[in-house]
Amino acid sequence: MIRRKRKTTYYSNTQGSLGLSDTAIKRRRQKRKQALIIALIAIEAVVVFGVIGFAVHNRRVRDAAEAALQAERETAESLPLISITESLPENPLADEYWGELIHAPRAIAHQRLNVHGIYMNTGLNLEEELDLISRTELNAVVINLKEGDGVYFNSQNELARSVGGYYMRLSVDLPEIVRQCHERGVWVIGRIVCFKDPMLAEAYPERALCDADGNVLHFNTESRMAFLDPYNPDNWDYCIDLALEAIELGVDEIQFDYVRFPTGSTVEGVQPTYREAENIPTTYDAINRFLQTARIRIQDTYGVPVSGDVFGISLTSRSDGALIGQDWPTIGFTGVDSVCPMVYPSHYALGTTLNGVEFPTPDTHPYEVMYNALMVGREFHEQEGYAVVRPYIQAFTASYIGEGNYMVYDYNAINDQICALQDAGLDEFILWSPNPNYPEGQYSGNAELAEGERPGETAQGRVEETETESEETQDAAGEGETLPAPEE
Q: Which residues touch 402 (CB under 8 Å, ≥6 apart)?
């Protein structure tokens, strides 16, 4: 192949480029120079105005962010600062078993809200319920961060991500929920189920309640599932670490649920080791020490309040409370901000006696059951230094307990329970429904009763059978300690 050379023509300087005269060349160069100057000026103007525009935009964004931050600060500053000192006596056996408590270098007072809240599960109908809150005395929501079947928010916790299966459920967009709630001035409580965690217990047997040979046990009244060991501080750390992660995403309060031991017998027919061990702390020592540790690492360190859910039976039976590790006389002295007893009328056995009053069908007496249960427990929770008592209120119909034994829990039945806790000297509460869709109303308790009307009157005589919702309600009621153990 022969390559041909490209022909190139050169022009002499005397002729000028393309044969033009020197004068023409100078004019063309001058025009080019002027055009270049104009172009440079235009580019500089674009850059300058672009920078100014970007700066203005940034300033607006920054001003908006600062305004939001200032509003948040003002809201925070309007909340009371509370400093709680634990009042539990020295416990040498607990110190020997777990080591002495290491307190925060400088415990800070935490901000708290006088909560009138609703349980929201994963917040699927958040907008609807936020609208309800805006029209009522309600001011807070409880969002699931972790349930018995796994972690619901996008946690980066290595242990959680190592479990596998569907443990990481990722059904809660926590930053978005926090954003929407805070824009409406609504307090966000993150709920973490602690020791009911069968998937983690099966994946890591060393964390589970086992028999003497180290075999994982399963409990009949806990859906025949395994349970994490509340004596194991590694399990405490796991729950606390998840809480700290949620706090970074803006959660206002941490609420620990299933802070207890399992109820009933084991499927295997043998006892878990702690029930036969000698010279170890009691079950309620374990639960109290967990709550103390959580309070130190969360509430004392970051100023974020910690609350704990407890069975309603703990208020009225210390022996039953000891079986699950929830001791009403002492749990409120762990220094946590609040304790939340689940005083659901449907959970009491037929013929239960509370505060000297017998209830053949407790579910049909929402006011009276709530009032009398709290009156029994007040002997302890009215002592100085006890945590705020914030009952969970039944907002679901327990048709599964049988015709004649239950009533429809409409707005009046819910508000009657608010009246009851007010009459018992309390104010805070959280509504619980497994399918959170709450009826219209003010939720202000006694404040909305007609003159001369007694709380409880509006709810009586409304015993109805609701066949269609029985199965769904019973299944969903397993969340949030909504089904009673045989001991109760």
A: none
Is 121 a domain residue? yes
Whether residues 352 and 424 fall in one domain: yes
The pLDDT tens digits for 251-294 are 999 999 999 999 999 999 999 999 988 899 999 999 999 999 99
**172, 192, 182: which is closest to 113 by C-alpha?**
182
Backbone φ, ψ for residue 232 (5° rounding):
-85, 110
d(CA 159, CA 236): 13
What is the Cα–Cα distance from 2 to 187, expressed in whole angstroms? 84
Round the average pLDDT of the chain to a whole number and report it: 84
Residue 86 lies in a domain: no
Q: What is the mean pLDDT of residues 241-247?
A: 98
Q: Which uninterrupted H or E stretch holds 452? A: none
* CB 343, CB 395: distance < 8 Å: no
Q: Is residue 3 part of a domain?
A: no
User: Of 17 and 197, which is predicted with more confidence?
Assistant: 197
Q: Tell me: pLDDT of 225 over 60.
A: yes
pTM tops 0.70: yes
Q: Residue 359's domain spans which residues?
A: 96-481
* 318, 373: one domain: yes
Calpha distance 155→192 (Å, rounded): 13
Joined tokens for residue 158 = 């290595």
* Chain centroid to CA 218: 27
State whether residue 365 is helix, strand or coil.
coil
Whether 58 and 137 share a structural domain: no
Q: How many domains does the chain have?
A: 2
Tell me the C-alpha to C-alpha distance, in Å, between residue 214 and each of 173, 207, 234. 38, 10, 17
pLDDT digits (tens, 9 = 90+) for 188-210: 999 999 999 999 999 999 999 99
- Residue 428's domain is classified under what CATH number? 3.20.20.80
Q: Both 132 and 209 in a single domain?
A: yes
Q: Is residue 257 part of a domain?
A: yes
Compute the distance between CA of residue 40 and CA of residue 111 in angstroms, rounded to an integer: 58
| Beta bridge partner(s), residue 81 | 111
